[in-house]
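[agent] plan:
  1. take the single chain provided in the ticket
  2. run structure prediction with default settings
  3. attach structure tokens to the ticket
  4. add a short note for the reviewer (M.T.)
[agent] executing step 1
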Amino acid sequence: MDITTILSTLITALGSVLVALITAGYFKKWQDRNKEKKSRGQLMAQIQKDELIHFTLREIRRQYNCDRIYIIQFHNGGYFYTAAPMQKASVTYERNSDGLERVSDKFQNVMVSHHTWYLTETMNNKMFYVDLDNMPDLPTKSLLKNYGNYAHSAVVIYNNQNQLIGVMGLSWVFSEIPKELMDEGVFSDEFKLHLYQDANSLNEYLI
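[agent] step 2 finished; step 3 output follows
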């Protein structure tokens, strides 16, 4: 094989390697751009969902003239030594009247076992108190009154597979409970049904 053939073969081989390297570089850049675009798209979609949830909560708060409305969602928050997941809950969305302290700043990664009475009563459709002084569970009453509440209601939120994914709570601090929400001094069955429907209208937007 003469020198010309050898050089030609080497040049061809080097050219192929160079093309492969350039192509791989462009392909990686293309992949990175696609990943970035997809990530940005997912973030924008989540922001739009969050805005819709906040808007809905604001409208519900105004409809019932309450001072604080929030959503609690359940999640895993680490593991026990047995590898069993810890069951925790956090306030993920909240709307308040002007000047009220946000509970979402403090209610993060809370053990579900700390609030079993509250959750059980809510799941049994019993968390409706026009006057918190009538609440029999002292720790729950103390916690709610610590944030200035005098009345409180809560309902569960299920996803489309009928799995419990959250709780929507309403509290009255200084605003008056509308008379049309009550029946003989307690929250009416009609209000309870409407509140449940309002809460579960959000289920498809919650993770």
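[agent] step 4 note for reviewer: The CA atoms of residues 71 and 168 lie 4 Å apart.
[agent] ticket updated
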